[in-house]
Amino acid sequence: MYDAMVLGGGPAGAAAALTLARAGRDVLLVDGGGGAGRVGEALPPAARPLLRELGVLERVRRVGHLRCPGNVALWGAPVPVVHDFLLDPHGCGWHLDRARFDRDLQAAAEQAGARLARATRAVAVDKAGRGWRVRLRHAGEERLARSRWLIDASGRGSVFARRLGAVRRCDDRLLAFVACWRPAAPDRDARTWIEAAPDGWWYSARSPSGARLTAYHTDADLAARDALRSARGLLAHLAQSPHLHALLASCRGEIDGRPRGVDASSGRLDRATGDGWLAVGDAAASFDPLSSQGLLNALYTGLKGAEALHRALAGEGSGLLAYEDRLRRVYRTYLARRTSFYAAEGRWPGRTFWRRRAP
Ligand SMILES: Cc1cc2nc3c(=O)[nH]c(=O)nc-3n(C[C@H](O)[C@H](O)[C@H](O)COP(=O)(O)OP(=O)(O)OC[C@H]3O[C@@H](n4cnc5c(N)ncnc54)[C@H](O)[C@@H]3O)c2cc1C
After folding, report:
1. Do residues 19 and 302 lie in contact, with contact meaning Cβ atoms separated by under 8 Å?
2. Theoretical Cys-Cys bridge with 68: which of 93, 130, 165, 321, CB 3.0 to 4.6 Å?
3. Which ligand 1 atom is at minimum distance from the Cα of 160?
4. pLDDT in tens, 95-152
5. pLDDT reported for residue 227
6. CB of 30 closer than 6 A to ligand 1?
7. Does 15 contact ligand 1 (Cβ within 6 A)?
């Protein structure tokens, strides 16, 4: 029987498995496989101390992630405001090759002693005595594994915590329409761009592969979904945001495939710990991509949740209460920051998207 089974092999799950394995715990990391389509690649400079604490900073530095020197925001006025990471005490950020980042974190967990079940989905969990029985599916075959504790690291779906009775509360219905732009002319701008629009906002960043990720964010009920899921419709919409429109026009090229609509809402579980389980990363709380806080939170809660669980396994339960409390405070602070950030854009006070976010 494992001490802990981590369900979900994204950054939160891998950070949790790595931390538990380092503490000498017997842990299984179950990775359903996110594929190449994972979103979330801007890693802010503030992530460096966490990467160092997890022992993976050098690995991230060495491999081919793109260094990001800062952000450009067209927010509140049609004038670009540059936030240069030169002034950041932690140094530059990165635009990650997300598949590589996730794989490297999993490899670090394995090296620390965690077992990794690749391309494996957890399909059922049941209480069994003082632990859990989990049904795992790999390549069409199923097997059972047992564990004393479960960690839900399944992402925004919070698949297992919800099955165990926790309720996910959402604070908005933000959707992102994500497209990969293949430039035909040289594109050397490695900064992250955001530009506000009448019914939402745009994001664009170059990825290490040379493609430019571009996403439009708006509320689910305001989105002309069919149009935004087509390259032509998304580009027509981009014309409302002249600076990003010009940036993409300057590197020419075209959208690769069809844009995808993905959930980008803010929300959290009513409780992130329960009898024999806890949730980490997006499964516990998810953030508006505007905050660039998702990966930071995934690494932080993976680390802190695992530390609390290590203590609980040693009979000291107060760490889990402190973890729950810390999560609550992080989310409350995030909501206050989100309000003040959206309040800084006052050009469209009558539009529903901005009215909903007014203080
Ligand atoms: C449009 C958009 C843009 C974003 N941009 C940024 C950004 O620029 N910077 C940033 O910091 N954050 C960003 N984020 C947020 C960031 O992507 C997430 O916060 C981060 O990926 C959370 O990591 P996680 O490990 O909790 O979950 P995930 O990365 O979602 O990983 C969950 C894993 O669990 C696996 N899984 C699910 N169910 C099962 C199962 N039954 N069995 C086994 N495995 C399972 C999935 O396959 C997946 O691999 C963005 C989010 C969105 C929607």
Report:
1. yes
2. 93
3. 41
4. 999 999 999 999 999 999 999 999 999 999 999 988 999 999 999 999 999 999 999 9
5. 87
6. yes
7. no
